[in-house]
Amino acid sequence: MGNPKAFLEIHRQEAGYRPIHDRIHDFGEVEQTLNTRERKLQASRCMDCGVPFCHWACPLGNKAPEWNDALYRGDWELAYRLLNSTNPFPEFTGRICPALCEKACVLNRFNHEPTTNREDEAAITEAAFREGYIQPRIPQHCIMKASVVGGSAADIPVRVAVIGAGPAGLAAANALNQLGYTVTVFEKNESAGGLLRYGIPNFKLNKAIIDRRIRLLEAEGIEFKYDCPVSSDAISSQLSSDFAAVVLATGTPIARDLKAPGRDLKGVHLALELLSQQNRVLTGMEFSKDDRITAKGKDVLVIGGGDTGSDCIGTAHRQGCKSVTQIEIMPRPVEGPDDPQSPWPNWPRTLKTTSSHEEGCTRRWNINTLEFLGENGKLTGVKVQEIDWEPNPNGGRPLMIEKGEPEIIKAELVLLAMGFLKPEHPEYPANVFVCGDAANGASLVVRALASGIQTAQKVHSFLAHLSH
Question: pTM value?
Answer without folding.
Answer: 0.95
